[in-house]
């Protein structure tokens, strides 16, 4: 009798494990995930501190030890004290990498006196071909002073892992190869915390406007 | 005398008609980004217009050991570059190669490409045959052609 009354009253919550309960749970879980995403998106856009202080700040970045274009060892600790714009790429890349580095150069030139507070960093995903010497010649072609980093395959892999950067060698005819790689510009604050990111769709003006707000 | 004038007038008519409506495949706005440092690869971009459907099948230039047609795609945040066998040119619709899309990859450059310099590039089309254009070199990482490229 009690059983019939529960099924008759549709306003009662459905028992755990029933299809309806699972559906409601799935919808609620979806709302929570969407809400978190929306919150993070809003927080990243409106918060002058960007992602610093949110869960994302510690999700991207991490310890690394690499060598710069002058042969000097550089670790993540050396990046502290300035804002960093970090881009992973490779010098044999004819399109996306020069575009990103030129966008960064234009954005920095629009920062005026604040440009000295920002350090662009280019980390190769192709340590096999990108020696400190070739990186040095490469980055001096851009207007901004870029710190270019390479290392052993293991050192580069560790840096890329920290920044959630994917890369893979794609062999081509004749023994040549290109690199598939994540194409993202990361903004790290002077404490080394992830703060914001830009993609190939971000125009230099958008990058400089965002940086002005972040640097304050 | 009057025949000469007539011929001249006819010539004018033909020329203005050609200007208004391209009667054959045209390649313009040819540009490339300067190559940073000793980078061995560069990318060139053009705009192609053809009154009839055609297909770009290969490219070559004396500045590089070989030139290949490449496409770039973003899968999520991951940039992938792949050789393609050709590029369809639909009738009457301009096709613009640009950063982030298709490009002509110049592989094994004999010398770095410097901003302000120019070089020849030959494109082979399935129906229209070869077309040689002058490529203007822009700043490394430029997102489009400058005023000099537009003149060619």
Describe this structure in words.
The complex is a heterodimer of chains A (216) and B (152). By secondary structure, chain A is an alpha+beta fold. Chain A has two domains: 34 residues; 160 residues, Glutaredoxin, CATH 3.40.30.10. Chain A has a seven-stranded mixed beta sheet with strand order 2-1-5-4-3-8-9. Chain B has 152 residues and is of the alpha+beta class. Chain B has a single domain, classed as Sandwich (Immunoglobulin-like), CATH 2.60.40.1890. In chain B, strands 1, 2, 3, 4, 5, 6, 7, 8, 9 and 10 form a ten-stranded mixed beta sheet that branches. The longest helix of chain B is centred in the N-terminal third of the chain and has 19 residues. The mean pLDDT of chain B is 88. The interface between A and B is medium-sized, with 36 and 31 residues.
Write the layout of secondary structure elements.
The complex is a heterodimer of chains A (216) and B (152).
Chain A: H1 2-8, H2 19-46, H3 56-59, E1 65-68, E2 73-75, E3 83-89, H4 96-109, E4 118-124, H5 132-139, E5 147-150, H6 153-162, E6 167-171, E7 177-182, E8 185-188, E9 194-198, H7 204-215
Helix pairs in contact in A: 4-7
Chain B: H1 2-20, E1 26-33, E2 41-49, E3 54-60, E4 64-75, E5 78-83, E6 87-89, E7 95-96, E8 102-109, E9 118-125, E10 129-138, H2 147-151
Parallel strand pairs in B: 1-10
Antiparallel strand pairs in B: 1-2, 2-7, 2-8, 3-6, 3-9, 4-5, 4-8, 9-10
């Amino acid at each position: 009798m009690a059983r019939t009354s529960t099924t008759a009253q549709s306003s009662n919550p459905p028992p755990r494990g029933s299809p309806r309960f699972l559906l409601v749970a799935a919808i609620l879980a979806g709302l929570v995930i969407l809400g978190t995403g929306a919150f993070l998106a809003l927080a990243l856009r409106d918060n002058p501190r960007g992602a610093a202080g949110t869960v994302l700040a510690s999700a991207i970045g991490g310890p690394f030890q690499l060598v710069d274009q002058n042969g000097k060892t550089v670790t993540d600790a050396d990046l502290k004290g300035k804002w960093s714009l970090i881009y992973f790429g490779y010098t044999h890349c004819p399109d996306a990498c020069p575009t990103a580095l030129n966008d960064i150069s234009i954005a920095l030139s629009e920062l005026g006196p604040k440009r000295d507070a920002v350090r662009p960093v280019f980390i190769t995903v192709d340590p096999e071909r990108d020696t400190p010497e070739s990186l040095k010649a490469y980055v001096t072609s851009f207007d901004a002073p870029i710190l270019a980093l390479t290392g052993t395959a293991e050192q580069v892999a560790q840096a890329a892992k920290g920044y959630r950067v994917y890369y893979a060698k794609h062999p081509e005819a004749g023994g040549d190869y290109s690199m598939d790689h994540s194409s993202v510009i990361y903004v790290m604050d002077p404490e080394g915390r992830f703060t914001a990111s830009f993609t190939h769709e971000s125009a230099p003006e958008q990058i400089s406007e965002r940086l002005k707000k972040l640097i304050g | 005398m009057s025949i000469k004038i007539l011929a001249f007038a006819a010539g004018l008519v033909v020329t203005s008609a050609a200007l208004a409506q391209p009667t054959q495949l045209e390649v313009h706005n040819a540009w490339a980004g300067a190559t940073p440092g000793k980078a061995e690869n560069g990318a060139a971009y053009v705009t192609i217009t053809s009154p009839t459907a055609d297909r770009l099948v290969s490219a070559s230039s004396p500045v590089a050991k070989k030139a290949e047609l490449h496409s770039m795609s973003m899968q999520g945040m991951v940039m992938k570059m792949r050789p393609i066998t050709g590029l369809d040119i639909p009738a009457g619709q301009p096709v613009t190669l640009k950063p982030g899309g298709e490009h002509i990859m110049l592989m094994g450059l004999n010398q770095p490409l410097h901003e302000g310099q120019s070089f020849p590039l030959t494109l082979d089309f399935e129906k229209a045959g070869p077309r040689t254009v002058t490529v203007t070199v822009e700043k490394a990482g430029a997102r489009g052609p400058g005023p000099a490229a537009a003149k060619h």
